[in-house]
Amino acid sequence: MRHQLCLAALVVAAACAPSKGPQGGANSRLADAREAAQRTFVEPGKLDEFYLFYSGGHSGQVYIAGVPSMRHIATIPVFAPYPATGYGFDAESKAMLGGFTWGDVHHPALSKTKGDYDGRWLFVNDNANNRLARVDLRDFKTHQILGPIANSSGNHGSAFVTENTEYALVASRFSIPIPVGTYAPTSRYATDYKGILSGIKIDSASGKMSVAWQIVTPPFDWDLAATGREISADWVVWSSYNSERATGRLEVTASQRDRDYITFVNWRKAAGAAAAGKGKMIGGVRVLNPREVPGMMYLVPLAKSPHGADFSPDGRYVVGGGKLAPFVTVFDFQKFLSSVAANDTTGSEDGIPVLRFESIRVAEVPVGLGPLHTQFDDQGYAYTSLFVESAIAKWKLGPFDGHDSALVVAKIPVHFSVGHLVAAHGDTRHPVGRYLISMNKLSKGRHLNVGPSQPESSELIDITGAGMTMLYEAYTEPEPHFAQLVRADLLHPIEVYPKAENTNPNAIWAASDAKITRRPGIVEAKIYSIRSYFTPNEIEVQQGDSVILYVTNAEQERDMLHGFGLAGYNINVVMDPGETKTIAFRATKPGVYPFYCTNFCSAMHQEMQGYFLVKPRTGVPVAASPAGGN
Amino acid sequence: MPLVSWLNQVLSSRARLAVLGAGLLLLLTPLFPLWKITMFANQFPEGLRLTIYAHQLVGGNGGADLQGINILNHYIGMREIHAADFVEMKFIPFVLGIFLLLGLRTAVFARVGNVVDLVVLFAYFSAFSLGTFAYRMYSYGHQLSAEAPIKVAAFTPPIFGHQRIANFDVYSYPGPGSVLLILFVVALATVLFFETRRIKRQAA
Question: Chain B partners of A556 at a C-beta cutoff of 8 Å?
């Protein structure tokens, strides 16, 4: 009995002891780690709940990971060749790349219906070469690359799709004299250099993109955008820096004003004005001047060199992240409309009215240092990344009654220097909550040392509770900017290309249909591929011939991919089941070059090979015997 | 009762209706699989499926499984399985039609002997069809190309039940179509049993 009492006393003492003791701290960290592991562990053979589509920055690609496991599942090549899937080697994808071998993907945007993801397409921008691409989520392949978009340079504020995917709205980060090819010295930057906002029309059936209209703007550097919803459905906002219209060392020259601008653009009005023939044709596109289309575009001051401009899920508020300020600014869209109606302006920039900041701003929430980008959950909270502070702040989206600092409810450090963040459906009408991913620019040695080129890290954070809980850390391919986190059950991709849908006139489905056709200077071959052979397995041409190969993978079984690699000719194409690819090149080098299946297919994969024989054009001996005999 | 007399006895109207009903089972048969062959392996957890109907051979997964099975079989030198090679699929629907007509005839002429004809002919037809099916299976597994990349001993794929072939577990079982055919015979046998009992009682 005495012993039991003593034990009881010990237990009470332990319970009352400060829990932050070294031993207790380690134990609770371990318990937290165990719980985090359980919540992110996805059993082998089981599926993740979410797709994460994250931009690959200057790798030019889009990467897919599963969440909560954070496992990298696949890469979607978009703006750069990718031998692993043969992208950029066949005639079709080569034509799409248009001679470029890289791009800079920043902001993927899923197509939407009524403001929510509909799982049809993913649009991604190329900041470098000013293009926009469409990935079809039926086969997870890039189907169109639009651009370089006329008159503009640096497609950064892109791509942001409207409530029902009527448009992808994009904006230039770098101002240039227009049209592209025009020369003007930078001393005339303020007047002769122009920013461009573009409305990219999206065909509702096919997803095909086309440049519908543009708006010429002062030479601000347009940064990030968001599209409105419900009351703000016709509007898009972009943040900008360099309202100073400066050149040279921008980190100084473009940081002189306390406030730059966020712009509110009525895209429906712009589309109407373009349809009515307003503006003029520049570089093949109808370009609108805001001066001539009143009510289309407004500027609102926003502190300081802002990055993020994000609409709340209901479309009522816009959150601006002034990256050199310690707070986010919240604008009320309803007040914006009242200011527009009352013409409550304080000036103008090249004919674009500047609205009175104080009339529209409803809060400055002190989230912390270097706010960049904001996402939302389903519980009325906003999450803002803090680059300088290397943290994420969770704050309540209202009420905005003057108690701004009381809105911040939690903060979590991240490792390190977060740029964008993404919450599940965090930029839609109906966010899902649960998970938030911090996409960090620096990892600073939190990983096995891989030398000086250090990876980027992304951290998975649980946002179900009152605060935020760090769950997992993964090394996402360089370099994630924005991403989209979407419920897996919204996507319904195919697993093979159905034979019945292959409309390629050169597709063949039986070895007996394989054929080599010769015309003067041109050799065409229809090649049949199936486990584990090519027909024909010998293709002979004359040196100098143009060679066109149509290779069909006749399989209809999932994951039965075949590759066609041609040694010495820098060719590697991969055909998915049911797919036909075209390979076009000139047989410049004489000799014998093996071709083989590059994508491991079967037990006899090694044997899946053949010879490409190039006969020398004139008088050169076919083979010189080393022994000198005949 | 002498055999000939028994064969000439007239069926009751209930028995005639039962024969008619049994004939209708034959009409339904082509809608259901006669036989199902399924192959599982570690990398084929959902299985490759072949379904045999009275009139057609259907590969699982929208037809892709037939090509898939042929691709795998070509490694051991088995010749390709094509629906067109199954001559049974031409004669079985035809013969089922004949049995339907014979059933109608029996319902009209209504002699015990007609039912006996039906049962005997149907038993012969079933045995013959099963025999050709077994022989076809035997031939696929025994006429292997001498040039096959993978040499295996000649074998007969399972006709009924499970068999392990290389890395595959192969299952072969009759489907609902065969059950209908069995029900057809059972119905006729039942008619014979009860009619004979009735006739005996009446004679007594």
Answer: 61-64, 67-68
